[in-house]
Write the structure tokens for this entry.
Amino acid sequence: MRAVIPYKKENAKSRLSPVLTLGEREEFVELMLKDVINTLSKSGVDKIDILTTSIYGVVDDIETNVIVSELGLNEVLNKYLTKISEPVMIIMADLPLVTTRHVREITTSDKDVTIVPGKGGGTNILYIKDPARFHVKYYGSSFRTHCDIAKEMSQSVYVYDSFLASTDIDEPQDIVELLLHGHGMSKDYAKQKFGIEVSEGRIKLSHAV
Amino acid sequence: MRAVIPYKKENAKSRLSPVLTLGEREEFVELMLKDVINTLSKSGVDKIDILTTSIYGVVDDIETNVIVSELGLNEVLNKYLTKISEPVMIIMADLPLVTTRHVREITTSDKDVTIVPGKGGGTNILYIKDPARFHVKYYGSSFRTHCDIAKEMSQSVYVYDSFLASTDIDEPQDIVELLLHGHGMSKDYAKQKFGIEVSEGRIKLSHAV
């Protein structure tokens, strides 16, 4: 099985800057990437490509294929899709809550395209059985866009409903979910840095004491 | 099958006050309640109790049993649990994204207690097979608390992983998910009131023009 992970370490996750320094953010995104790679490997995904704009900071202690390109996310992914001829999972690097169960359920769907929505209209995971019959368009309301593209291309769609897989770690509040429901190295890192603050409403992030 | 829905219309959902007036919020919570009741009914739940602190604003055009009590949420629910002797689902009224599939999957689990976490550490749905062997403690980090209570009472736990069922409508950003992924009367209401604003990051709510 094949998966591709778009990845950017340099100045990543600026929306986490209220709670993590630049150096910490770069460390954190690398751990999230490693968690995603581990989950894929344990799920039997044996071909993992990392798409990145710069070789800077790409982890070298794991067996993956690194593709460096200065193209934008959509351009590089669509070029990639034209070059492969087998089912592929496009999975974002900021999804440390994804488990082997999710990967198994997503890759065994009988639909042509499986879409895992992210919070706020994004697309966290796409599983495309025939890359020649799909193209991506990330940013903005990409969940709706990807549903539309599938329809245009006469591809059947499965919308995979998972709280964990829908939780991309973008904002401080997302780290709360990682602390509550997560596993792996990025969770351990977050535990070192943060605690959680219980009040009447939703739990908030606090700095570890 | 039996379900109980804690419900409060009076001055409900204050965190939606930046985008909805008091009157609109009260209208909106009533529609969400109706959506939840419809989903339960369609799923074969034939005994639905509504727990409320005041008869004010409890919908009268639906066949449910209304229990009025001035006790706090935990007190009234724990009293309720002592009085019934069959499996029961405690489901919040602000979950219009819940579908019949969720209800079916939750009620057919072979575990003693099923917990659907909400965002930020909350508990959106609890399905309790033996009410004599569980008690609730909402507010704060209730997801963790409910897992702990199940453990203390030697009840096995199934954590149900669903983006839709985890999305309680509490804050303006949650309405974005209702617009993107919802169904039913509360979605129609939100569509009348709001649009969505597409930018680089997650989609934001905007007022309808």
Observations:
- The two ends of chain B are 43 Å apart (CA to CA).
- Chain B has one domain: 2-168.
- The first strand of chain B starts at residue 2 and ends at 7.
- The domain at 2-168 of chain B is CATH 3.90.550.10 (Spore Coat Polysaccharide Biosynthesis Protein SpsA; Chain A).
